[in-house]
Hints:
By secondary structure, the chain is of the alpha/beta class. It has one domain: 3-Layer(aba) Sandwich (Glutaredoxin), CATH 3.40.30.10. The chain has four helices and seven strands; from the N terminus they run βββααββαββα. The protein has helices at residues 35-46, 48-53, 88-93, 129-142, and strands spanning 6-9, 14-16, 25-30, 56-62, 80-83, 105-109, 115-120. Strands 2-1-5-4-3-6-7 form a seven-stranded mixed beta sheet. Strand 1 (6-9) and strand 2 form a beta hairpin. The termini are far apart. 33% of the residues are buried.
Amino acid sequence: MVRDFALKSSEGKEVRASSFRGQANLVLVFPRQSDAMHAFLSEASRRRPEFSEQDAVVIAILPNRREEQRIPHSDSSPIFELYDETLHVHHLSGTTDESGSPIPMIYVTDRFGEIVSTHVAADHAPPSVKEILHMLEFVNHQCPECEPPEWPR
């Protein structure tokens, strides 16, 4: 299970991981300063409708404030940006190395907070957004009562 945490968003609001429990699958992205992870977040932002179809929310957990990031940002971005300046959530989530520095990682959880996929992107590129969307589709098919409805929204 993903451990519950609360962090401030780019709008200054506190967001809890548990507030999505029972409502949405999560894609938790710990990007660090990796160009490949930034490209992943940009593509995920562009493909928001596909994440919505899978009842998924993408959350980027950043070790620094927005102005210190190299991640492109738009105020209309569908990705929640949460700031973990003390690295407490990074440590809690196992996304730090032996020296305590953040490592790039992606967790995919089902709507109940169970981790179904973990991707470490330290030495190589993260999975593609397409792969993550396929994982989310698989997760939804594993829980028939949770699967998104067949009819248009």
